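--- STAGE predict ---
source: upstream dedup step, 1 unique chain passed
mode: sequence only
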Amino acid sequence: MADLIKLGKSDYIKANVSNSHNDAVAFEVKLAKDLTISALKSKLEILTGGSAGTMKVELYKGDKCLGTLDNNDAQLGYYASCDGLRLHVIDTFASFCFDAPVEKFELSKDQYDQRSDSVRHYLKQNRLGKYNEEEMQQIEEKKRQQAEEVQKRAELCVVDKRCEVTVQGNPRRRGTIKYNGPLEGKSGIFIGIQYDEPLGKNNGSVNGKVYFVCPPNYGGFVSPLSVTVGDFPPEDFNLDEEL
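--- STAGE serialize ---
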């Protein structure tokens, strides 16, 4: 694997688990680094309903695939040693087709809760995901703090004030605040900026609705957390002075 993660000091990692049935992250698990890939697949068999003997497990960092956990005798820590990665289980049985109709098997909520071989039982027993009350409280507290910070920053974003915008993956841009409020069809508060240069994505309109007016590609809408209000004069780029 060309892009392996270097080993860290902790004996455990926290990783998300997804599967080839829906490609969606279902839950977070805590795993020992000295767990062999063979033993890992047995755990994932319980969690995903796949077969340890046929499943393939891929390791992701965000949307980037770092490789396949293909050595059953290797330890998990050889492939991954930091939190925040994703184990994607590919179940080969999921691609089989059956011509005969299969009667749908359903359990009531009470019957499912009583089963000891279900994913829900495993999560409860190991206090994972939503069944970890302390972790869920921490998540809710972080959400509350972030909401307070967004509101506080939004109150500073007064229309016609100068600002600097910092968004990850983009250059810092300066401009003037032209809008502060919600966008139709989206949740949260957005700050509309008219940039000093054509580094935006629109003209102050989103999906045909006008929030403010500016030349094409001079407008943009960002989170209040990306906006710093202050005395930011327009930057003067003199192309004649460039070497």
